[in-house]
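User: two proteins, same treatment. go.

Assistant:
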Amino acid sequence: MKKYVMVGASNRCLGMYAKPMVEEFADVAKIAGIFDVNRTRADYIRRNTDPGIPVYDSFETMMEEAQPDAAIITTVDRFHHEYIIKTLEYGCEAITEKPMTIDEEKCRAILDAERRTGKKVIVTFNYRFTPYVTKVKELLRRGTVGKVLSVDFEYFLDTSHGADYFRRWHRRMENSGGLLVHKSTHHFDLVNWWLEEEPEEVYANGSLRFYGPTRKERGERCSTCRYGKTCEFFTDYSNNPFMKEFYFDAEVEDGYHRDGCVFDEEIDIYDSMSVAVKYSGGALLTYSLIAYSPYEGWKASINGTEGRMEAAEFHSGPRAAETSYRMQIFDRQGNVVTHEVMKSSGMHGGGDGRIREMLFRGNVSDPLGHFAGSHDGLKSAMIGICANRSIREGIPFNIKQMLK
């Protein structure tokens, strides 16, 4: 039986870890404590999982009293490095949500702490564990398109999920590193994993043109906004018991508003982004992300010496109801091979359940290298970090040079 502590009483902590640990993994995993500066949210997680779990407002007290084997870190992104490093220094394993961290200085500090302590960081890239992207990996490793020379990857967030990043803490670059770090870290990690090459140089463009202060009709938050009856982004949480108890009742402690206006002047992250990445083996990635699409999902074209793979997933919109995903392999003789992968149940395409099995039971074989460590977290985060710097300064950035 391994003991875990939860660092950051977030919705992700509750749904991804705490509830499943209590309901499905109680024979192998024990939650020995929950830490958060917001007692209301920590108490909510305790009440809705195991009322016997101790709740702490001091990380150090929790670590000393609980004596855990590992800490699961689900705080605001800007604090990941702080608790990763402290966890390692307590002699424990650090399991962190993506992104590993949000700037190069914090990356260096995490790698240094790993070297000093001899303890390891696990980054929970759950997207790797979905059956569809696993099939892409299998086919590429099998050489179905030969050596990969270039990848075009397009991700589109819709105006439900995408807009939500502009309501929450993510909308400040200082908190999340923007979508190129917080969200794109998933996509960069997939491409890194598929290619099995090191990203080297990054150039990017980005802008904020859809959300942010683009209209006069805006307020501080939806619940007090006078434009609620006419704004298409108005969200009413008044009849949602979870939102009330977990967020609105907790505002008195830290002032955090879950329903911020998506047109607020304080928003400084981008909603339109394009990135070019050069890899160590010569492959090139062309990537784009928008946060205001009519539907949500991604498309990828992977071009190699022997052919081309086209893959896509749709999470909302007219094609989201399809029961399977398809990918096609084209060769230069005019042949097309179609592979079909049935959709999996569970959050994030079934990836959450699979990564939990590997985390807590450790009885899942891993021939494709799904499990991710600090180097994987570093590579994907640094693409986004370099991209942000490139947008600001208008020049390409070398990842190794940035980390010196």
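Protein 2:
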Amino acid sequence: MPARASGHGTASPLEAGLCEALSRQDVPHEHGSLHFRVRLASGELARFDPGIVVRRGPVVFLLEALTAPLDGERIALLAGFLEQHSPEIVLVAVAPRAAVADVPPASYDEVYADDEIPRIVARLRTQGADGFLEPFRKTGRPRA
């Protein structure tokens, strides 16, 4: 983990930025606390270790900092994770502004650009402990 933020080990400068913003707003979060196995289309099992975990009541948010160009294997892993794991887990992808439109909707529950970190933190801070989630409208580039 090359980057450090708020005393936490982070995997990238983008993840460090997320961590610092969460810490500044006193949003409790964890790094490396959850581990999942995901069956890939090939049938093999792959390990998924979310970058940042935020627990809000019964809902768990997994924040994944993506880099550009997008890693196809990572995107496939995220899509497989969403197909196979609990709907009470919300997978939030964060990518560079120029790459957001290229993140396939099947690989996230919510997606934000790297310049929207304050919006992400506000969303997490206002998430109530009752488990009700405000809907997030998926967008993306139409498939040809």
